[in-house]
Amino acid sequence: MRTIFFILQKEFLQVFRNRSMLPIIFVVPVVQLLVLAFAANYEIRNLSVDVVDHDGSTWSRQLRDKLLSSGYFTLHRQSYSQQEAFEDLEANRADLILTIPPHFERDLVRENEATVQLLVNAINGSKAGLAYGYAANIIGRFNRQVRMDWLALDEDDGPEHIDITYRYWYNPTLNYKFFMVPGILVVLVTLIGAFLSGMNIVKEKEIGTIEQLNVTPIRKHHFIIGKLLPFWIIALFELAFGLAVGKLVFSLPFEGNIAWVFLFAAVYLLVMLGLGLLISTFTETQQQSMFITWFFLIIFILMSGLFTPIESMPAWAQQLTLVNPVAYFVKVIRMVMQKGSGWADIQHYFGIMLLMAAAVNSVAIWNYRKTV
Amino acid sequence: MSKAIITRNLTKRFGDFIATNAITFDVEQGEIFGFLGANGAGKTTAMRMLCGLLKPSSGEATVAGFNIFTQTEQVKRRIGYMSQKFSLYEDLTVKENIRFYGGIYGLSHQQIKSKTEELLGKLQLQQEAGQLVSSLPLGWKQKLSFSIAVLHNPSIVFLDEPTGGVDPITRRQFWDLIYEAADRGVTIFVTTHYMDEAEYCNRISIMVDGKIKALDTPAKLKEQYQAASMNDVFLQLARAKPGENNSSS
Fold it and tell me: Which residue range is the domain that position A133 belongs to?
């Protein structure tokens, strides 16, 4: 025990004496939280649209105004030339083109139907899908309104349609940040856990002090505990700090008992620290350790369901997420914070995390050797 | 006097390469034992095996009476080690380094306190006690490094090229520290490239290509090779093509 105390004392002295460490601990999370929470947003606004109005009638103008007043679209160019609009689309200046053909109004009145054309830039498929969806929805509504108001059909006589009433559960205002901020916190905690711990051990190899330690009677587990505990503490502090920032800045909901988040994080961090330790056992420089850690983390994070739902991944990828610790933590933190889940709901994931922690750390400790 | 180190046919292979080839020697308790050889001759490998940092491929050895195959932890309690690479923490102060190493060797707080004062006084580092080690000149760092390596009163201390890159005056002072430790009965096992330092040793061994080619007191070696200085002895041995010289160990 005394040995661990001396190692901890040394580690904390070194961590807080490192000039880049305090900014990493305090500034980076705040910046990431603030920037990412606003940027990682799937709601698409400000799509730029070119309107080619060959009709120039009252109704064609009304259709255009409906589109622009929706808040999703901004007018990039209003023209009579299809060619100009194509050029805008090609040069990426416009996201979509709405072409209203000549005699739009006349056809609508006389023949009871008219066509418009939507061209969507689909380099980014999901953005294009949303753009089309928004536009089609608006045009559809315009269509109904026209039929009712201008063709003088009364409500009862009007075309039948089903009215859907809806409620969004667990995030009634569809505030995207409530969904993203907890996930981003997971990433922050993960970075501290996996990166800093691994690099810290490899640093001792790099500067040669590990050799000095290896000739001392330090016990393997004392060394490992002394090395990992500081980052366990720092990462949990980071989580608390990030939650506080989230509460203050984004009014993050805390539906469930936050203690479950911390309990889960405590075990989750053991997995990440173990991963850092494991990587440090077979790398010689901080650079190597960083690249390897990054390799794992980028896969873990992209496949965690943080940015894209796991349910929409192909089956084999969904299988892979079963061994992805980040996916579990993202899921649990969202469950507890947004849905108010308690122990009964998370115990299964907690058990998996315990197993992972035991597995990763056994391999890491087995692989760490004082004597080569 | 008992033997501090005993090795019998100690060998380390890295794949096909034999770094240390069946070396056999004894080191007496309290002796200053010089371990010489050209770069790549296998000195560091041999030393790392004796310190328990490297598992030998074959052979036998005991350090301070403990087997280096099976009792590495007991060995580690009784040895001090100072590597080629400076290995104190540059981002800790002089005092913090002493406290840390004292602590992990199991000294009590009281012992650490008194040892710290004794050590700072001896090295005249009282003024610098609160400074980061990175701000000290190399020579001072090396002296501090040595003092910390013997902080826990080891019976043997291993020094791997302790004076590399240090000016002659500081080297002299460094050797004063070594003599002082030897007077207290600490066995010194030292590798060096400086032939003047070789002369300070009680006995020296010279390694060439993984084998010990010569082992005796400096005076006897000079006599045997009819050389004016240790430098000549070393050059004769190290330059000889493998196989030309008979092993004299």
Answer: 47-149
